[in-house]
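Students often ask why we bother encoding 3D structure as a string. The short answer is that it lets us treat folding as translation between two languages. Here is a chain of 947 residues written in the first language.
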Amino acid sequence: MYKNFTLVLIFLSSFSFAQKKPLDHSVYDSWESILSKQLSNNGIWAMYGITQQEGDATLYMNNQQTNASLKAARGFNGSFSNDSRYAVFMIKPFFKDTRLARIKKKKVEEMTRDSLGIANLANLTIIKIPRVKSFRMPEKGTGILAYQLEKPLDTARKKNPSSASEPTKDNLDFFADDEKSNTKKEEGTDLIVRNLLTGTEQTFKYVKDYAFSKNGKQLVFATLAPKKDSTARVGVFVLNTEKGTLKNLVKGKGNFRNFVFDEESEYLAFLGEQDPEKQEVKNYNIYYNSLSLDTAQVLVDNSIPGMPAKWSVSGDGKLMFSKDSRKLFFGIAPLKQAKDTTLVDFEHAKLDIWGYKDDYLQPMQLKNAEKESQRSYLTVIDIFNGNPKIVPLTDLKTPDAALISEGNADHVLASTDFGNRVQLQWTVSAIRDYYLVNTQTGQRKKIISALSGSASASPDGKYVIYFNEQTGLYHTYQIETGKISTLNEGFQVSLVDEENDVPAAPDAYGIAGWTKDDKSVLIYDRYDIWSFSPDGKTTAQNVTGGYGRQNKITFRYVQLDEEQRFLERNEHVWLTAFNNVSKENGFYKKNIGDQKAPELVVMGKFKYSTLIKAKDEDAYVYDKGNYQLSPNVYVSKDLKSETKLSNTNLQQQNYNWGTAELVTWTTPKGFKSDGILYKPENFDPLKKYPMIVYFYEKLSEGLYSYQPPAPTPSRLNIPFFVSNGYLVFAPDISYEKGYPGRSAEEFINSGVEALKKNSWVDGTKIGIQGQSWGGYQVAHLITRTNMYAAAWSGAPVVNMTSAYGGMRWESGMNRQFQYERTQSRIGATLWEKPELYIENSPLFSLPKVNTPVVIMANDADGAVPWYQGIEMFTGLRRLGKPVWLLNYNNEAHNLILRQNRKDIQIREQQFFDYYLKGAKAPAWMTSGIPATEKGKTWGFDLTDEKP
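And here it is in the second language, the structure alphabet:
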């Protein structure tokens, strides 16, 4: 009887698997993912979004005490009010409507626009307001909202869009009648200020920009009206949101922006100019206002003492008050030259001149030209100085600076790589000098010379800590005394990457943070966290008690409050935890002031998102999932018990999904390695399966990552192939300097051989796939072995000798650094080790290739020159090898356009199905697509012909 029952269960289980269908290419669009998550300040309400790959999103709000809920179709970009009583969010148009409008090629102004949603969390109602451009709520104030409307479609019949939604509205048009608006881009639109408690609203016309003070008691905005509206009041205004009074800070037409209030919401600063509209180069001033002033004063103009000759206030600079509100930081820049309109365009040459003394290569200059034209240089003014003057803190040769102690300190930390920029061409990492610059005098003191590494100030501004990549040492500079201390000289544990396998100095694991009053700095090693005294006087303490290294668990500090600048000495903190052996993830808690082992909270076979905490309560929201479980949103008080809020991708249960398991093996040279083996859900060990090997560098950390079926940018669509009866193997690779190709052979081939020992792996039907660096390794492997039945190589480099001097056009950088210092791992110049460049270039071994291969090489690839793919294709074609090249027109290194991503998924399946499953070949493989048929047929039809 028991045996019969067991057989029935086996039969039913097999029947259940049999009923599940494999994924096809139609499933992508409706597959869901989680958008941003947040909690109300009181921790009672959770808000999160779920969207489809191609479709409409939904915004959800859940009450954790009453289980009440709200749902907003197409909602996004939501925020809770500071008092946790309201949620405000934007609402996108229907995806189908936007798609139809694009098909009809409607103009931007004719497209359906976003709406605004206001949710009352007490009575669970939602008000919707159409055609809203943006909204803002104060960070700390309560009960107030400002939102800006789009321009009306029909200005002749203009009406307030929120009037039908809320009968208690007090619509006060302060500035102008409801008159037909000018459609010029320069003019502003209606700004609505809404009292969330009463529903009353005020309307201000022609608003261009607006901002709340931190406490919400002041709302500043600038207006710009059309010329035909002579009654409109234009300029800058401040609304007292408590009293309802309005101050006109600046009168007249102009361009005013970058509004910033100080920490206490008492002072206001902004940029502005009132030059003639047609004047090309504008003269900006910095305006200043306080609660006691009725109008804004010009705080800084171009004639102020301290302004360098032929320099001016930058209209692109950022304004920032010091935390104590005594100083204002802003940007200045050299005077811009107006374009010479007398030049005749067709009578002058257009060319780029590359000079060997240039700081940057010409392509990088051109790429960054717009950004550089907007660069500003940090400057400061003491607001309360009776003799106003400005103090430039940076200049053309020392352009970068960071505030110390939120601007309260008497110095800033400035740095420059001037004089060391040419070598970026082959080193990629900058060598910088660092200075302390006095904010009262501008006097500079060099404190660090020729540093290849990083430097930053401590929160209270007592120290500058810096890491030297070349020595692997941390140092501190004590600002008051000038004393330099070395923190980890002779230290028993490495604080730099122990697994570094590129021909450059290893990176530091980094700094977790500082404790109060700059008493100690917390620094990571591979596993644990160490506390160092910044003066170097006391022995470092292992905060996590060595528990991480003992158990191969990597701990990292979770900063839950973005504004928190330091840790209290005995503060209990959250730590993320990653088990380097099992690849499990989780969280621990730790008293930062002792050396006891961290307290385990949760550890499991999941991948967790970032932990988000409610501002005023111990409540947390996060999502978690793994390869088999679609990520869902959870809330918890302690992460030991949790409440699940979402149910994403319920349709997954209808498909033959898969499993992910960790595999280990030993390479021929004795190296231990890990990898992930993905199997179909209906895996049967009595059958033989084709296998695709996908690789890049190290992927095993993603063992518990969820991978949705999606048209990828060019990576392997793992869940799709697994669902369709393939095994997929993702091996980790470690590299030997100078021999990246051999390293790929060492780890990939040996991992495959280890798996082939299983009877369920069909050793004659194994394919390989890789993109970019993975594409290079695919190209290399097929010149060294015939063990692979098919290969797919995306954006490969096949000729390191020609690629070495080429360009990464997306950034304008030369490629030399990649071979000498980073991923390509040659570790020498082309003329120092030409034999290594040739050995690691598949092009020179193409006659050995017997594996059919598809190459993707796109003509707008900004990382790998697409002629690398052409060299591979034309070489193999000349040799009569089966090869195809896909060039997605005007596409990037990784595919951007969704239609192209969908296209490549189909072709990749057809290619591997033919060579690994014996399926029919598509027309694009057998007869190609003639240029005369481009855009008419895509060659997906299956044929009886052979490629």
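Translate back mentally: Residues 898-917 form the longest helix (20 residues). Keep this in mind for the problem set.
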